[in-house]
């Protein structure tokens, strides 16, 4: 068996890590990402566009949704506080009442009442859930023209 000669040094584990190869690999990856990042196009969506109405609605019925979900129905002459269950019936009454009586009256006047737009105006701090419930209630009741009021910022 051959003898192992030690030249004055004992065998010790190396407790240092050479960082140069790690840094080289990271710099190469950084360059690759910097070159390829502009080539990746972000996902773009095509938003639907709407045309302008031929004429403005005869009457605007406004539903005001407060911070705590309280509802106010605002027509030309009055504002009424109500709950969600009574809202749809009140909006339909306001629509038919604006163009004449639902049973009598002329056909043109009755169709003008159905042209009344319903605009939902919600406070900035209102939970989105309250606005969706109002929209859902109105659509289930058969209200055709429901919109959201927004503030345009230039």
Question: What does this protein look like?
Answer:
The protein has 154 residues and is α/β, with parallel strands linked by helices. It has a domain at 60-148: Nucleotidyltransferase, domain 5 (2-Layer Sandwich), CATH 3.30.420.270. It is built from four helices and five strands. The protein has helices at 20-36, 84-98, 107-114, 128-140; strands spanning 60-65, 71-74, 79-82, 117-122, 146-148. The chain has a five-stranded mixed sheet with strand order 3-2-1-4-5, with helices on one face. α2 packs antiparallel against α3 and α2 (84-98) crosses α4. The longest helix has 17 residues, at 20-36. It is elongated. Mean pLDDT is 77; it is low at 99-112.
SSE order and pairing:
Elements: H1 20-36, E1 60-65, E2 71-74, E3 79-82, H2 84-98, H3 107-114, E4 117-122, H4 128-140, E5 146-148
Parallel strand pairs: 1-4, 4-5
Antiparallel strand pairs: 1-2, 2-3
Helix pairs in contact: 2-3, 2-4
Short description:
The protein has helices at residues 20-36, 84-98, 107-114, 128-140; strands at residues 60-65, 71-74, 79-82, 117-122, 146-148.
Specify the CATH class of the domain at 60-148: Alpha Beta
Major pleated sheet: 5 strands, mixed
Rg: 35 Å
**Broad shape:** elongated
What is the chain-wise order of helices and strands? HEEEHHEHE
> What is the CATH topology classification name of the domain at 60-148?
Nucleotidyltransferase, domain 5
How large is the count of helical segments?
A: 4
Number of strands: 5
**Content of β-strand:** 5-15%
Report mean pLDDT, rounded to a whole number: 77
| Contiguous uncertain segments of 5+ residues | 99-112
């Amino acid at each position: 068996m051959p003898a192992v000669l030690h030249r004055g040094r004992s065998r010790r584990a190396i407790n240092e890590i050479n960082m140069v190869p790690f840094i080289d690999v990271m710099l190469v990856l950084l360059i690759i990402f910097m070159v390829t990042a502009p080539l990746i196009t972000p996902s773009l969506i095509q938003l639907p566009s709407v045309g302008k109405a031929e004429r403005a609605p005869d009457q605007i019925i406004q539903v005001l949704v407060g911070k705590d979900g309280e509802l106010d129905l605002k027509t030309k002459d009055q504002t009424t506080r109500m709950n969600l269950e009574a809202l749809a019936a009140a909006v339909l009454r306001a629509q038919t009442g604006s163009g004449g009586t639902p049973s009598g009256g002329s056909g043109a006047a009755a169709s003008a009442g159905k042209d009344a737009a319903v605009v939902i105006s919600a406070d900035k701090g209102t939970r989105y859930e309250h606005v969706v419930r109002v929209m859902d209630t109105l659509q289930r009741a058969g209200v055709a023209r429901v919109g959201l009021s927004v503030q345009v910022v230039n």
